[in-house]
TrEMBL record:
Organism: Corynebacterium poyangense
Entry annotated with the keyword DNA-binding: yes
Pfam families: Cupin_2 (PF07883), HTH_3 (PF01381)
CDD domains: cupin_XRE_C, HTH_XRE
Protein name: Cupin domain-containing protein
GO cellular component terms, semicolon-separated: cytosol
An annotated Gene Ontology molecular function: DNA binding
Length: 216
């Protein structure tokens, strides 16, 4: 993805959130080295400094949503694979309400076992599936008051198609030169290659969406 120019209680998710944030840097480093790319190479293509990539890999900085998409695109991996941990599998959904299931045909993620990641601007992603090699991403995204999907008001673009629904609060979605205010229950779909960004304009309330991105 390139730049165009420019709560409910989450206590149950905190351990996996901390784990995802701890693993994301080493995972990016591992994939970068497997691609035989230097920090300078990855930073140049992603549009950031080698030092910033190094900070992310060492866990000293969190990427923005836009940068995360860009890194996944440059490294040629599904964006959910950056979350680092291998798939969790379980044997049964009937006897253990805390067991995740991941097979060729079924992916079940218990709420207490969701992996989540807090971006640099405070936006929180929670994965709703644990099949990172699939061609789609299915997640819940929470925007604290005044937060945006990108830093400095920049737009993002990347391959694919995306769609979703607002389940709490209101969210402004900017696509090219148009702004759409989505309230609870409103849904939207668009081509991800169009310059876009998400903004919670409220100063007091969170906005929460269920969102799907299909990679072409």
């Amino acid at each position: 993805m390139s730049n165009n120019s420019n709560a409910t209680n989450q206590t149950d998710s905190e351990p996996l959130e901390a784990e995802a944030e701890k693993l994301i840097g080493p995972k990016i480093k591992e994939i970068r080295k497997n691609r035989r790319m230097s920090l300078r190479d990855l930073g140049k293509i992603a549009g950031v400094s080698a030092g910033h990539i190094s900070q992310i890999e060492r866990g000293l900085a969190s990427p923005s949503v836009g940068l995360l998409y860009k890194l996944a695109e440059v490294l040629d991996i599904p964006i959910d694979a950056i979350f680092g941990r291998d798939n969790i599998s379980g044997d049964s959904v009937t006897n253990n309400n805390l067991t995740n299931i991941n097979s060729n045909n079924v992916s079940l993620v218990r709420k207490v076992n969701r992996k989540s990641l807090t971006m640099s601007g405070g936006v929180v992603w929670e994965l709703l599936t644990q099949q990172p090699e699939q061609s789609y991403s299915f997640r819940q995204i929470t925007f604290p008051p005044g937060t945006s999907s990108t830093e400095n008001g920049e737009y993002m673009r990347h391959t694919g198609q995306e769609f979703g629904i607002v389940i709490e609060g209101q969210l402004e979605v900017s696509i090219e030169f148009e702004q759409y205010i989505l309230a609870e229950g409103d849904s939207l779909a668009f081509d991800s290659q169009l310059p876009h960004k998400f903004t919670n304009l409220s100063k007091t309330d969170i906005a929460r969406i269920i969102w799907v991105h299909i990679k072409r």
